[in-house]
Amino acid sequence: MEDYFARSPRDFLAVATPGAGKTTFALSVAAELIGRRIIDRIIVVAPTEHLKSQWAEAAARAGIPLDPTYSAGKGKTSSDYVGVAVTYAGVAVNPLAMRIRAERFKTLVILDEVHHAGDALSWGEGVREAFEPAARRLALTGTPFRSDVNPIPFVTYAPGPDGIPRSVADFTYGYAHALADHVVRPVLFLAYSGQMTWRTSAGDEVAASLGEPLTKDLNAQALRTALDPKGAWIPSVLAAADKRLSEVRRHVPDAGGLVIATDQVSARAYAAVLKQISGESPTVVLSDEKAASKRIATFAEDESRWMVAVRMVSEGVDVPRLAVGVYATTTATPLFFAQAVGRFVRARKRGETASVFVPSVPSLLGFASELEAQRDHVLGRKVTDEDDIFAAERDLLEKAEQGESASDELERSFEALGSEARFDHVLFDGASFGHAGEVQVGSEEEMDFLGIPGLLEADQVRELLHHRQSERARTRKPASPQPDTVEQVSTHEQLAVLRRELNGLVAAWHHRTGQAHGITHAALRKECGGPAAAIANAEQLLARIDRIREWATRKSS
After folding, report:
1. Confidence band, pLDDT 50/70/90 cuts, at residue 118
2. Per-residue CA distances from 200 to 196, 197, 210, 232, 403 (Å)
3. CA 502 to CA 523: how far, in whole Å?
4. Nearest to 217 by CA among 235, 202, 233, 234
5. How far apart are the C-alpha atoms of 426 and 449, rounded to whole Å?
6. Interval 173-214: pLDDT, tens
7. Contacting residues for 496 by C-beta, under 8 A, at least 6 apart
8. Distance between CA 198 and CA 439 in Å, rounded?
9. Whole-Å CA distances, 135 to 10, 132, 138, 261, 532
10. Residue 421 to residues 409, 425, 440: CA-CA distances in angstroms?
């Protein structure tokens, strides 16, 4: 507020983590500008219909009446209103009507989650045309990056240290800062892996462990198999999440849970599973239903346990009592992941923690470990590091994965045959915590982490995780004697053990160096030779295990 009114800029970009109070800031600025007669009218632009109503309710509490039912073709609105709330889609339909409104009055435009507007998209073009003449523009976002490289309207860009243009925020308040100020909750990520089996369109049966280094197609099919409600993985994870919610509700009686599903069929199936597990019917929110916004509002105020939604609750929706989440969607972009996790971090009082259950997929675990990193919207990426031998390959892969191709056809043409869940580890504060060996769902080892109290400070959570991990390791019974040579166990068992060991070492290397899992696997293949780990033989896997251990020794010395 001090910075804004000291400089009085026409354009201002505030980047703040979800739950930090962007809405309150914007409405406080609006009230002050109206009081000073600097502006006469307000236009709020939000991503969804539900958020329009949420803005109108918040504005009413601040003494600023907004019309959330206004549409560009409607023309005038009641004189009781000081402004209107519209969606980006609504602006794109008739930007000229909004432009006339912005020209007629001294207007403040509040662009909520402004990253939705990209110049090459119809939304971005509409926003730029409609609000070019506005007296003031206040842009807000919790995730200042997009999946593409289109400039965001009314956002300033400047070259970074590498010469690549990045968005420049007027004020930034990141998750790490907010966590230190006790404005947001610390997040526990509980990762679950397991064995997946599916049949391809060619009739071949494929078996793979969730989280193994696989091709893009196989990774996608393994994840879809895990999320299939007919298998055992999703019911096991939902049961674990319900246990976690019960533990949290011992300390936070009104705590709620949210399952984010891929589509409506899956959402209804997950709701049926949750009803069997918890004995209570969840609130199901489908974006195309008229009562969706009302259901979210009702859930926010009551004390029911679970809500299941497709995508509607992924961004901007304010349900502060959400404390446990299940990321059960195939959408795996950093933007969507950050928005989804943002639903659980809004703190009401000190000591509340959030718990998010995720499939043990490298991309999602990478997003989780990078939660505290600040990101800016980058307009382009050049390969400038000649020592980074994988940089060009990564660029080619990213470009290849952006478009619809034969891989999308492969994703659709498969049949999930079965799945089982296994507790993998907990990610917290960039570190991994778990128990040696396989941890079965429903075991005491799993409850070591599901049973963490719901009211703890971040440093207490970290200390408790360390304690439970080390205590279990100390009291663990000695393992039964293993065969002296790898020939004495079956090939299938031998390869599974070696892959698990290699994946564990790669994960540890990631937490130590920050290097992505895929880059580490590629480097090991380059040094040791052989195919991908999923199809490598025992000798090749052992060579890679020895090599990464050598790296660790060299690094520490």
Report:
1. low
2. 13, 10, 17, 20, 22
3. 13
4. 202
5. 8
6. 888 788 878 888 889 999 999 999 988 777 778 888 887 777
7. 209
8. 23
9. 7, 9, 10, 41, 57
10. 27, 12, 8
What whole-number distance in Å separates Cα of residue 258 and Cα of residue 301? 15
Distance, in Å, from the CA atom of 413 to the CA atom of 410, rounded to the nearest integer, reads: 5
pLDDT for residue 397 is more than 50: no
Alpha-carbon span 71 to 22, nearest angstrom = 24
Distance of CA 285 to the CA centre of its chain: 19
Among residues 56, 149, 130, the alpha carbon closest in space to that of 378 is found at 149
Closest to 186 measured CA to CA, from 200, 172, 198, 176:
176
pLDDT, position 217: 79
How do strand 83-87 and strand 41-46 relate by DSSP bridges? parallel
> CA 255 to CA 247: how far, in whole Å?
10
**CA–CA dist 255, 94 (Å, integer):** 42
How does pLDDT run across 10-56, given as a tens digit for each residue?
999 999 887 788 999 999 999 999 999 999 999 999 988 888 888 99
Beta strands in 147-237 (DSSP E): 157-159, 165-167, 171-173, 187-193, 195-200, 205-209
Q: What is the C-alpha to C-alpha distance for residues 265 and 271, in angstroms, rounded to an integer?
A: 10
Cα gap 427→9, rounded to integer Å? 41
Under DSSP, the state recorded for 114 is: G
Residue 289: DSSP 8-state: S
Residue 232: is it exposed, middle or buried by C-beta count within 10 angstroms (0-12/13-18/19+)?
A: middle
Residue 263: DSSP 8-state: S
Residues 6+ apart with CB under 8 A from 84: 42, 43, 44, 66, 67, 68, 70, 77, 101
Q: Which two tokens stand for residue 502?
A: 């290699």
Pairing verdict, β 354-359 and 187-193: parallel
pLDDT of residue 391: 41
CA 176 – CA 184 distance, rounded (Å): 9
**CA dihedral sign of residues 337, 343, 346, 348:** negative
Provide the whole-model pTM: 0.69
Residue pair 255/248 in contact by the 8 Å Cβ criterion: yes
Residues 242-272, buried b or exposed e (16+ Cβ, 10 A)?
A: bbbbbbbbeebeebbbbbbbbeeebbebbbe
CA atoms within 13 A on the CB side of 295: 17
